[in-house]
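WARN retry 2 of 3 for item q-0093 after timeout on previous attempt; input resubmitted unchanged.
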Amino acid sequence: MPSLLDEIRVLESTTIITGSLAGCLLGDLGASIVKVEHPNGGDPFRVFRGDDYSPHFRAYNRNKESLALDLRDDQGRDIYLKLVAESDVLIENFRPGVMERLGLGIEVLRETNPRLIACSITGFGEDGPYKDRPAYDAVAQGLSGITSMFLAGDDAQLTGPTIADNMTGYNACYGVLGALFERERTGRARRVEVNMMESAIAFIPDPFLNAQLAGVEPGPLMRVSASQSYAVRCADGKALAIHMSSQEKFWQAMQRAFGRTDLGTDPRFDDRTKRIDNYLELATEFQKTAATRPQDYWAERMAAENVPFGPVNSLPDVYDDPQVKHLGTFAEITHPEHGTYTAIRRPVTFDGSRDDQPLKPPPDFNEQGEAVLRRLGLEESEIEAWAAHNRTLAT
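OK item q-0093 returned
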């Protein structure tokens, strides 16, 4: 059975996370991806914590072919335009104006391939006062307001995963899929523009409206107090995450599970508004009780009372979680030289299956370069000239 994006060809000119993830997501749906990398080492993520095939690179670059190409060289630019001519989608995450300076602006791309969907990923947009600034995840998180919701008191330490980077990759994929659908209906090929700052802002719509309409002060407790979410450490040092939300039945169930029905008559906690206002005091009561028994004991009690809860898994714990195992969330990828590792499978199933597109290992640097050029119809002399130019840049 063909994959959803079977016969869709994607040309990816990206580094690090945002565009690489967008390409990875499209590849997971069956698209063919050619990743163009600079001849001098390629994507910088290759060498982050591990030779030229690092965990970071592996996380975002499966299901792709790698081609080393110098876009400032006349031959490299010509090869690139040959790839443009046969592609359905182009994804690039250069700073604004770089593609134009390379002679690869949208007019040139449209002239080469009128059906090309060109996706541009930037830090702050194609224009405006920030357009030329360098952008990374922490910068976009800070500007978006996300960081303000993690920092407490005088502690200015950043923590957590790459939210802005990853959301931008997902938004780019989302925009490309919409543009592909429209092109199939109308023949029109769109230019898709995504930026990290707006992707991060769009990730937190409810805090903005709560601050605007309800006067709720943003901060680390804004969401957890309103959603009545708690983390408690048990007697064995393991933790549980609890989320009672707004339903009274879960508040009642929590009291029974902890054997703390006295909390229901405590004037600090006897309605939901008070529990939100006195969040830290209630958290202290929960913690005192949780510390008297191990995690397994409380997990059994909460499951019996239908409390929304889960263990706070370490990353190694996640692999062994019974539900994760049941769903088959992880799969092994084997590379003939770099061995086998465990990867996260596509988190979307179609007709109950994720197996229509097997996971292919990320490419070594320039692994498919010659094969791609032969597929484009280049002569051996042209391939030799390309290889010689790449060797010059790599030294």
